[in-house]
Design brief:
This protein is an alpha/beta fold and 467 residues long. The protein has 12 helices and 22 strands. The chain has 3 domains: 205 residues, FAD/NAD(P)-binding domain, CATH 3.50.50.60; 113 residues, 3-Layer(bba) Sandwich (FAD/NAD(P)-binding domain), CATH 3.50.50; 111 residues, FAD/NAD-linked reductase, C-terminal dimerisation domain (Enolase-like, domain 1, 2-Layer Sandwich). The chain is globular, with a radius of gyration of 24 Å.
Length: 467
């Protein structure tokens, strides 16, 4: 008779593996089922981590070609070794996935390789090349993540027409890359290949880039990316990609509202119109769970409609972000262990790792205006920051929004070098429901880019000192 686990987690991505580790720390008997063959999910294997490796390498390559001479650095003949650049990306991924396996062993988590599905109450069936086994569990956690959303009428072959996965391993730098979708993933990957020499044309159905982010932030980002060389076609839809020619792809465009079609040629098309929950084939019907039309499983503090079945990460409601899934994984493990696990969904930052970086947390100005809430704003440009001037990273600004009466920080929106690191200060402040004055009166190191955060906080009350 098989031993019963306290919880069996289906999915080994950021939500699943952190849930497993935290449960192990709390003394629970845990199994984590993963079908990919390596832990870490989309994020570590074909998402966040490999893309950051390429972003870093491509930024250095572009800087060597465009900026070093102005800094007094002579480089000689500069060339690109794409195979080596891709290899260092793979090396980073391999090391991190093995690191999770080590953490599983350290915390007593059983790693079960195979495709998991719910076979009934307290039953998880795992199918692998070695056959099928059934795990008994007091609790089941669904952490299966998400997959690329396809574009109707456009077939992805991961060679010439690629998703975000294929865009991480192109055999050569495209001459002309057409990027469908101006969201976070597309802009990051598009910027990689632009820096390596590709012409990049961005096609976006909406009339703006980065939907959901602060409008002022998005407008500034578009202006900077256009200056860098990206060509934007907003309010435009792709209706088809003709792959019949071996020499080029013909991409058909139309205005989003309808109108005359045009055609542009490219050698690579990147489809990045979003992601959708990966919830098909999970056996949800065996425990009475119904996903919605998009495949999203509803939850109440992590609990599904089925007793002792939990859900977290991309396959449930909320932003599809690895750190959101991680927080939910910890909270679910703690709740199963009888503790008060909690996630503050008002303080989940979002970062776009382009150059410059874009970071946001809390409410946007658009949301505050729509709700009629009275607010104050402080804004500080990096152009006036001494560290930004000396490091030639003056693009962008920091904006802080606070309640007009209480001064509680409601949100912050930044674009500039390393703002993905700086946003954490505001997240911490918001967790403690701090006022903008608390940040304004906190000593920051000089010279540092973080001083822009302090100066923006000063600006909420109208006493910015350095601009």
């Amino acid at each position: 008779m098989s031993e019963t686990y306290d919880l069996v987690i289906i999915g080994g991505g950021p939500g699943g593996y952190n849930c497993a580790i935290r449960a192990g720390q709390l003394g629970l008997k845990v199994a984590c089922v993963e079908m990919r063959g390596t832990l870490g999910g989309t994020c570590l294997n074909v998402g966040c981590i490999p893309s950051k490796a390429l972003l870093h390498a491509s930024e250095l390559y572009e800087a060597a070609g465009k900026d070093f001479a102005g800094l007094g650095i002579k480089t000689g003949g500069l060339s690109l070794d794409l195979d080596a650049m891709l290899a260092q990306k793979d090396e980073a991924v391999d090391g991190l996935t093995k690191g999770i396996e080590f953490l599983f062993k350290k915390n007593g988590v059983d790693y079960v390789r195979g495709r998991g599905r719910i076979a009934g109450a307290g039953k998880v069936e795992v199918t692998s090349d070695d056959g099928t086994q059934t795990l008994d569990a007091r609790h089941i956690v669904i952490a299966t993540g998400s997959e690329v959303t396809p574009l109707p009428g456009v077939e992805i072959d991961e060679k010439r027409v690629v998703s975000s996965t294929g865009a991480l391993s192109l055999a050569k730098v495209p001459e002309h890359l057409v990027l469908i979708g101006a969201g976070v993933i597309g802009l990051e990957l598009g910027s990689v290949w632009r820096r390596l020499g590709a012409k990049v044309t961005v096609v976006e159905y909406l009339d703006r880039i980065l939907p959901g982010m602060d409008t002022e932030l998005a407008k500034t980002a578009k202006r900077i990316f256009a200056k860098q060389g990206m060509d934007f076609h907003l309010s435009t839809k792709v209706t088809g990609v003709d792959t019949s020619s071996a020499d080029s792809l013909k991409v058909t465009l139309e205005p989003s509202a309808g109108g005359e079609a045009t055609t542009i040629e490219a050698d690579t098309v990147l489809v990045c119109i979003g992601r959708r929950p990966y919830t098909e084939g999970l056996g949800l019907e065996n425990v009475g769970i119904e996903a919605d039309g998009r495949g999203v499983i509803a939850n109440d503090h992590g609990k599904t409609s089925a007793e002792n079945v939990w859900v977290l990460g991309d396959c449930t409601t909320g932003p599809m972000l690895a750190h959101k899934a991680e927080d939910e994984g910890v909270a679910v493990a703690e709740r199963i262990a009888g503790k008060a696990g909690h996630v503050n969904y008002d303080v989940i930052p979002g970062v776009v790792y382009t150059a410059p970086e874009i970071a946001s947390v809390g409410l946007t100005e658009d949301e505050l205006k729509a709700s009629g809430r009275a607010y104050k704003k402080g804004k500080f440009p990096f152009q006036a920051n001494s560290r930004a001037r000396t490091s030639h990273t003056t693009d962008g600004f920091v904006k802080i929004l606070a309640d007009a009466e209480t001064d509680e920080i409601l949100g912050a929106h930044m674009i500039g070098a390393t703002v993905g690191e700086m946003i954490g200060e505001i997240c911490l402040a918001m967790e403690f429901r701090a006022a903008s004055e608390d940040v304004a009166r906190t000593c920051h190191p000089h010279p540092s880019l973080s001083e822009a955060v302090r100066q923006a906080a000063m600006g909420v009350e109208g006493w910015t000192m350095q601009a």
